[in-house]
Write a structure and sequence with these properties.
Two copies of one chain form a homodimer. The first copy, chain A, is α/β, with parallel strands linked by helices. Chain A contains twelve helices and nine strands. Chain A has helices at 4-12, 73-78, 122-136, 150-161, 180-198, 206-217, 220-226, 232-240, 247-259, 270-276, 295-303, 320-336; strands at residues 27-35, 41-52, 62-66, 91-95, 142-148, 166-172, 280-281, 284-286, 309-311. The A-B interface holds A 177, 179-181, 183-185, 187-188, 191-192, 195-196, 198-201, 204-205, 207-208, 211-212, 214-216, 220, 223-224, 227-229, 231-232, 235-236, 239-240, 289-290, 293, 295 and B 179-181, 183-185, 187-188, 191-192, 195-196, 198-201, 204-205, 207-208, 211-212, 214-216, 220, 223-224, 227-229, 231-232, 235-236, 239-240, 290, 293, 295.
């Protein structure tokens, strides 16, 4: 279980303020051969998910919660990330994004292993989730889509690709399209993976890739405050162990984030993309986030004619570390009001 | 000339406000076999330097200016970095730090090439400079030692290793010992170099190493403001080309910075190290510096019973980009008062 956010979240996160439902069993939807935006086909597509709570008779209380970069639906439960959803009221469906090693991924594909795995976009992840929601779960309209980090990117994609399919959306440290710094960050990881691949062992990139992520996950100010020099070895070991188990999987999700852009179906216009949105949106960002820099999400919210919950603390991308209780309560209120 | 700071400085720096002297010819001091702190010997040690201005009759107006990480004495002139020194008044001696590819380095050593090159410390760089100053130039006491980044680290080392040898010191974005974030950053570069070395081509690490440096050189807020997505390719190309020409040289200087600690001769006590200082110090730091985080330098200045010139802008380690004129004028006043 060498997953960056899980590792670092479990090391650094305080218990979430609100109680999280226990881990639920893994279910898998077989989507068959799945046509991708690129024109390629993902063969034998499998989408894994875990649900909690009960779907009401009108099927009106479902909340979809896709995974973050490198994360799994299991992580969403075990880290307590789903605790912002009250499962006594809502039916929660967490979904493993393609490329995470649980849903279809280079590491687990039978017919398209490793380098043979096709390029996946955030739009493909969301299109598959749409199939799950409408065809497998039989839900016509979601109460909400929410997600953290790459999950927040998927929430923005849902908002613009299926505007009538949800009442609300909560992108948390997400983005409608990555900023320049984020792109430099992820391209650095891709470059390290390519270096290792050329050296004959793609998996040997994992320590460097994990360390690059750790550089951006929290702010330098956080480390000046909370990481004494004596803890450096522990920090480095945690960082090295923080990348995914498969560098092919890591590469797949990196490429998906790098290519992410909700304006692509709107002639490159964010204003037109925003004009398509019908749901209510609670946009949560960290002003000191160096992993998913907040500018694009803040500007998109403004194009929706609304503000953002913008946290200013030194926790960076892991803003729940500093302001978890406050944010979770705001999200519960938004979902339930 | 693939040197990070030079590349990025020349791309991004506005002209220095004050006029810089033209590039001066390279001189080389042969120091013979040079005993290192580690107990190893650097064979046929060569220390390169360039001077400007005229040494006065009392030899009282000399300012020593060692190079930054990856930089050369040529860079100090061509970037205009030396323009804070008025060479109509002062005799300026810029010195190429060991490992920079000009002074003794893994890339140019005849008898200790590549992996055979011994481990060098910041203390060794400074000890060699002390030999240059006292034995080659015949100067008993410097007017000042100043330096930027790793040059600032050398200035802190001078202050504590040879407290009576200078009247003033100006460490700029330097550090008496690196903070945790800095160590994580440099260890990430070392890890990339080691990955490439294991893959059979140490030099193939350069693009990743350059990109890691670029992540920390300026703040994410700077890139959100000044790097539009359309400029990303240029940013990435500049970053990839920003590492040193020799990854052996880069590794040597990385290891020197990682091991840097002026308290090592004072039982690990920064308070005792600071108590040894006799010179006047102008400590210049960037509060948003993610490459040499400012905490240790600020705390050291406080142990000297004084404040710091602490810039708060979004330029990070390249604080001259935002506040160059202001800082240079403050330094000139300090040197001349």
């Amino acid at each position: 279980m060498r997953r960056m956010l899980l590792t670092l979240l479990t090391v650094t996160f305080p218990a979430y303020a609100l109680e999280a439902p226990p881990l639920q069993p893994l279910q898998v939807a077989e989507l068959g051969d799945f046509e991708l935006e690129s024109g390629e086909t993902l063969l034998d597509a499998r989408l894994a998910y875990r649900t909690a709570g009960t779907l009401d008779a009108q099927k009106s209380n479902a909340i979809l919660f896709p995974t973050w970069f490198t994360g799994t639906s299991e992580d969403l439960f075990t880290t307590g990330a789903v605790s912002a959803v009250d499962t006594s009221k809502f039916f929660l469906a967490t979904v493993d994004a393609f490329g995470n090693g649980v849903s279809s991924s280079p590491s687990n594909s039978v017919r398209q292993k490793g380098d043979a795995f096709p390029r996946i976009g955030i739009g493909d992840m969301v299109k598959a989730q749409h199939r799950l929601v409408t065809q497998v779960l039989g839900i016509e309209r979601l109460h909400a889509v929410m997600g953290i980090s790459m999950g927040g990117m998927q929430a923005f994609e849902w908002l613009t690709a299926y505007p009538t399919l949800m009442k609300k959306a909560v992108p948390i440290v997400g983005s409608p399209r990555l900023g320049s710094y984020d792109l430099l960050l992820w391209r650095t990881e891709l470059e390290a993976i390519e270096l290792a691949r050329k050296g004959g062992d793609i998996e040997s990139a994992a320590p460097v890739v994990g360390m690059v992520s750790a550089l951006a996950l929290q702010t330098p100010e956080f480390h000046a405050r909370a990481t004494p020099r004596e803890s450096l070895a522990k920090l480095v070991e945690g960082a090295k162990a923080g990348a995914m188990e498969s560098m092919y999987d890591q590469r797949t999700q990196l490429q998906a984030m790098i290519g992410h852009d909700v304006s692509r179906s709107f002639g490159g216009s964010m204003a037109r993309a925003a004009a398509a949105v019908e749901a209510e949106v609670l946009n949560v960002v960290g002003l000191t986030d160096h992993m998913v820099t907040p500018g694009p999400a803040i500007e998109f919210a403004e194009l929706l004619g609304q503000g953002s919950v913008a946290l200013e603390n030194d926790c960076g991308h892991l803003l729940f570390d500093c302001d978890g209780e406050r944010v979770q309560k705001a999200i519960r209120l938004f979902l339930e009001r």
